[in-house]
Structures are given as C-alpha cells and as structure tokens.
Recover the amino acids of this structure.
C-alpha cells in the first residue's frame, strides 16, 4: 500500500532515467542518508564504531569493488586483497614521501596505482577465463604478499616489516576520534557507491554485463573484450585500492603484510556471494553479514548461558560461513540482495495481494 | 605447430634454469643433486594433492578448491585417532570417514548444483573448504600433531663414490616416494582394468554419453570423491609424518593449483610431472636464485618459493594455456 509507484508518471527522458525512479525509494534513501550522517554519530557508541561500523564501511567498499569485477563482468578473482595491499602501501609511501599532499589526493593516487597493478594482472583475463583466471589472480595474491614483506623500500626499511601511519589531516580537520573517522568514511563510501551505481547503469557497466553473460555475443554486437575486461579490472582495483588505503590508514593505523593475506581475499568473495553478485546493495549486505556474524557468535553463547572457547567460536564461524556459501549458491544464487528485491515486490501488493 | 614451439622454448628455459648453477660452478655437484632430490620430494606431495584435483575435475568438472582442506582433515583424523588405536586401524577408519564425506558432499553440494557454471561450483568448494577446516579443527583440535609411521628419521648416505661426501637422503622420504608410486600404479590399474574404472573414464570423456548408456552419474561422483579423499589421506599422512599435522598444510596444498595448470587439468601424468617440476623449480629458485635476488635488490630475505609456483603457472597460462598434457581445446576469449 505504501510502496507503490501508481500515479508517478515520467514525462521527460531525464525523469525516466534517474537513478531512483520511484518516489518511495528516494524518500527511503534520503531517510537513510539522514540517519547515517545526522543520527549515526549520536546513536553509535565509540566501541561500536570501531569494532563494527568502521570495518563494515571499508569492507563494503572493497566488496563493491570486487563485485564490479566478479558480479558485473564475470571475471573471478581470488586475489583481491593483493590490490587492497597495493592501495594501502601506495598510500603509505605517498604520505611518507610527499607529506604536503592532502589525504584525499593520496587516496585517489593510491587507487590509481592499484588500478595500474590490477590492469597488469588483468591482462591474462584476455586469453583465459573462469578457473584458469582464478589461478592467475592467486599469483597476484602471493606475489604481492611477498613483495611487501621482502622489498624493504615499500615499508621504509622498518625492521619489523610493519608500518604505521600518522593521524589524517583533512584541511585542518583531524581524523582523531571514532566519530570523525566514521563521518569521513560514510562520506567516501556514499560518493563511491553513487559513482558505482551510475557506472554500472552506463555504457561501461552494460559492456561488462554483456561480457559476463556471453562474451562471444558481446563481441558480435560490437563490445571490445579488451576494453570491457581491462576497464573492469582497473575500476575494480581502483575501488579496492582505495578501500585498502582506508583499511590501513583509518581502521588499522599500523599494519604488516599479513593484514592482506588470502583469507581477506576469500572473505571479500564470500561477502559478494552472500550479499548478491551483480548488486551494489548486495555488497553492503554481504559486508555487514561478514562483519556482524563473528560478533554475534562471540556474544550469543553468553546470552543463552552457554560457555564456548574462542577457538571453538572461530571454528564454528568457519563452519557457518562455509555452509552459508553453499546454501546461498544452491537456494538463492543472487544472495541477500535478491531477498530484498523479493521483499519489495511483495510490498507492492501488500496488504491486498489479489 | 605453434604449440610445439612454445613447449620446446619453455622446456629449454626450465632446464637451462635448473642446470645453470651447476654449469656456472655456483654449486657443487653433490649439493645440487641434494637440492634436486629435496625438490622432487616436495614435488611428490604436490603431485599427490594435484592428483586428487585431476580425478575430480575429470569426472565431475568441478575445480575442487577443497582438496587442500581434505588433506588437512584426513591427516588430522589419522593423527588424532592414532593416539587411541594402532596406526593401521586409524588409517582404515579415516578411509571410512573420507568415503562418508564424499557421500555427504555429493548429496548436499554436487547434486543440487548439477549443471551449474564451473565458477559457481568452484565457489561452492570454497564453502566446503571453510566448512571442513572449521569441522576438522573443532572435532580434532587445532594444535600441531604428529603422525609416527615407525620409520626411522635418520638420513642415510648414498652415492659416496660418485660425489664428494655423498648425498644425504632421508629414509622417510624414500618411503613416501615408494608409497606415492604404489598409489599411482594402483590408480592406473584401477582405471584400466576394472569395470568401475572404465565407467569413470567414460564419464570423464563425455558425461552425457556415459549417462545415456546407463552409467549412474551420481554413484560415479561418489566414487571419484572417495578416491580423491583416499589420495588426500595418503598425501596427508606422508605430509603429516614429515612436517607435523597443522593448519598450514591446507594452505600449502593450494600449490596444487599451479601444478594442475602446468600439467593440464585433465591429465593424471600431467599432475605428477607438473608436481615434480613445481617442486624442483621452487626449491632450485629458493636455493640458487633467491640469494642473488636478495643481494641485487636488497631484500629482507628470500621466500621466492611462496610465489614461484604461481608465477610459473602464470607464464604457462600465457604461453601454453592447456598445460603440458591437457586437452588441446580451451576456451579462448
């Protein structure tokens, strides 16, 4: 009854092509943004921000980047944490060696460097696909792990191999409290999500999707595979690189190469499988799920008066992740985002479905 | 024709890389042979893990990411059960467990996902990987365990007359190699001589045709996954006896992926030879190449063997995408 587009007529091309064509969606989005930027700082405690919300925001940006590649362009990657590490170390070195650069510039440059590296490792995708590409991206993962652990220049000759960052200064506004970090991240993620949403609606996104659905047919209708695949790799790596820089600078503060190992890559993949492949919204659902589940599992036994060791919890977590992946692949391959869409469809007819 | 040229160039490059330290006098002949043998030993283990991959890929078209997790799970089961019973009983029980696991995977994962895209199946096996790692460690514990095969660990000297000071070889390495050879021979006989083996080959060739002449696909899948489980068990026991059973086993087993790229996804000899090449290649690279790289680029230690296999696979993918022995056909884009 509430969610129905009856009576909303489009009288111009502009109106027909806008990002959120239905009035209720626009209201919902406005309320959501209002909640995030105005309500958020008052509602979330510092602990909650640091433990849940900040990692959730950064990981959803990373998942979004991976989703552009895997979900929209159909090129699988098992090594996306490598591009996160490229972003993080690029940002570290830029901030270290050119201290007068603004952090926003550093962020963009780090993303561009990650995009270049992604482009490089995306080249095999022009000749191979599917399973073969999975191994090629694993090469990126292990090679980058090794590079940042062994080549001392990247870590500025730190003896322990770990690097740490200074507090971020944005035009005199110090990112020194959880609330400020949260607001900054929320703004960055919002901008990038809107960009991605428009990217996949546009020329480039359509080329990616055509490539994913059937590459031969896409080529026949005039989409250049080289262009489509390499842009997907570059844009995806750019997003992931920015997420990596944020992960290092805003969330971790100091980190070592192990922070970006293959488990992070797999976790990113899980986020988009559970959240929904080929869906911007799904990346957020998936990231939230992966961040929230361990916290829930840690607290749940305590609430129901049942004691569990931390090792047991982490094993259980792995088992639940594993089963959920299989469950989603079988039952709902399009993930939580599809459930959301079904919910919206139901809501259109509710409460009089006939 | 072009393929042959690429193959020759790659082989020559690999061989040249191997012989270079010997030819330039950078290493003594005895030491070089020791490194070679050490690489071959590691290669045997990679081959065994890769064998499991190839078996499953041939029969069901599934790229089984979980093979490493199966190795870990099998090794953990043997190690923990052997604490309470004789080793042979533990191994037998572990075989039963692996077969049961194959049944469960076929029922709950493969059957509902039949005819899906290979990438979807790959992701499903990622789920299996996580599940098995969690299950194994919550049932059997997550410390480092030992498997004692009752073979003395003392090294023996061989070929003292040929090389200065002879060559050190571990007895358990020899036993492992013998076990691997026996296993592969048994598998080959099974595929050639038995009715089930023929059915397996038929399914691998063309599963629709196989189904139409009355070969039950579901049962074949169970058999193949059980076989892969048993191969994983052997690999796990050998590995566990050598290095101890611990979580890292499942990560190192990821190296079987480059191995199957090198050997070709569908070739059992390819898996074995690919494993040996990767094993020798990364040992040689670590021992002879890493010090040079460390010196030249001022690195913080070697560790080339962590990525050597993957980058080698990447080179193969670019030059010889179907691997050494794989089927010629590959989806070119």
């Amino acid at each position: 009854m509430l969610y129905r587009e009856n009576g909303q007529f489009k009288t111009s091309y502009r109106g027909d092509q806008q990002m959120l064509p239905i009035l209720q969606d626009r209201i919902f989005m406005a309320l959501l943004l209002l909640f995030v930027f105005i309500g958020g700082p008052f509602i979330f405690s510092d602990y909650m921000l640091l433990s849940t919300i900040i990692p959730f925001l950064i990981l959803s940006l990373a998942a979004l980047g991976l989703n552009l590649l895997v979900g929209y362009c159909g090129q699988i990657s098992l090594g996306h944490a490598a591009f996160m590490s490229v972003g993080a170390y690029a940002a570290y070195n830029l901030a270290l060696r050119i201290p007068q650069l603004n952090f926003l510039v550093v962020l963009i440059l780090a993303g561009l460097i990650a995009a270049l590296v992604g482009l490089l490792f995306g080249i095999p995708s022009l000749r191979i696909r599917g399973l073969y590409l999975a191994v090629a991206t694993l090469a990126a993962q292990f090679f980058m792990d090794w590079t940042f652990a062994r080549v001392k220049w990247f870590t500025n000759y730190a003896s322990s191999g770990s690097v740490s960052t200074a507090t971020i200064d944005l035009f005199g506004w110090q990112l020194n409290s959880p609330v400020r970090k949260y607001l900054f991240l929320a703004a960055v993620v919002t901008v990038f999500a809107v960009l991605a949403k428009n990217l996949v609606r546009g020329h480039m996104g359509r080329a990616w999707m055509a490539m994913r659905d059937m590459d031969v047919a896409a080529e026949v209708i005039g989409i250049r595979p080289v262009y489509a695949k390499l842009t997907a790799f570059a844009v995806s790596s750019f997003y992931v690189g920015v997420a990596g820089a944020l992960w290092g600078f805003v969330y971790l503060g100091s980190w070592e190469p192990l922070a970006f190992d293959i488990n992070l890559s797999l976790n990113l993949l899980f986020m988009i499988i559970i959240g929904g492949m080929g869906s911007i919204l799904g990346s957020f659902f998936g990231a939230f799920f992966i961040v929230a589940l361990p916290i829930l599992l840690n607290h749940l036994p305590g609430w129901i008066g049942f004691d569990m060791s931390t090792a047991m919890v982490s094993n259980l977590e792995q088992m639940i992740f594993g089963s959920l992946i299989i469950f989603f692949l079988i039952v709902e391959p399009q993930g939580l985002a599809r459930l959301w869409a079904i919910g919206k469809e139901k809501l259109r007819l509710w409460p009089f479905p006939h | 024709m072009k393929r042959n040229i690429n193959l020759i160039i790659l082989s020559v490059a690999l061989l040249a890389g191997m012989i270079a330290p010997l030819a330039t006098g950078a290493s003594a002949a005895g030491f070089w042979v020791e490194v070679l043998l050490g690489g071959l030993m590691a290669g045997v283990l990679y081959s065994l893990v890769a064998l499991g991959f190839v078996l499953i890929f041939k029969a069901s078209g599934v790229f089984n990411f979980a093979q490493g997790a199966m190795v870990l799970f099998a090794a953990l089961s043997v190690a923990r059960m052997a604490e309470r019973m004789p080793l042979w009983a533990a191994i037998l029980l572990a075989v039963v467990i692996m077969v049961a696991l194959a049944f469960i995977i076929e029922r709950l994962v493969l059957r509902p996902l039949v005819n899906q895209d290979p990438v979807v199946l790959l992701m499903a096996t990622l789920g299996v990987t996580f599940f098995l790692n969690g299950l194994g460690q919550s049932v059997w514990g997550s410390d480092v365990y030992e498997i004692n095969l009752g073979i003395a660990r003392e090294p023996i000297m061989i070929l003292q007359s040929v090389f200065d000071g002879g060559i050190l070889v571990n007895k358990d390495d020899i036993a492992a190699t013998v076990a691997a050879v026996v296993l592969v021979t048994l598998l080959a006989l099974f595929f050639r001589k038995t009715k089930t083996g023929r059915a397996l080959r038929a399914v691998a060739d063309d599963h629709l045709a196989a189904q139409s002449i009355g070969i039950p696909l579901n049962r074949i899948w169970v058999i193949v996954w059980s076989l892969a489980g048993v191969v994983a068990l052997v690999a796990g026991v050998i590995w566990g006896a050598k290095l101890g059973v611990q979580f890292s086993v499942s990560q190192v087993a990821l190296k079987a992926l480059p191995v199957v790229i090198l050997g070709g996804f569908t070739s059992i000899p390819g898996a074995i030879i690919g494993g040996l090449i990767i094993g020798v290649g990364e040992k040689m690279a670590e021992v002879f190449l890493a010090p040079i790289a460390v010196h030249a680029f001022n690195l913080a230690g070697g560790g080339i063997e962590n990525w050597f296999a993957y980058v080698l696979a990447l080179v193969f993918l670019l030059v010889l995408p179907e691997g050494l022995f794989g089927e010629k056909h590959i989806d070119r884009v």
In short: The CA atoms of residues 28 and 272 of chain B lie 28 Å apart. Chain B touches chain A through 52 residues (CB under 8 Å).
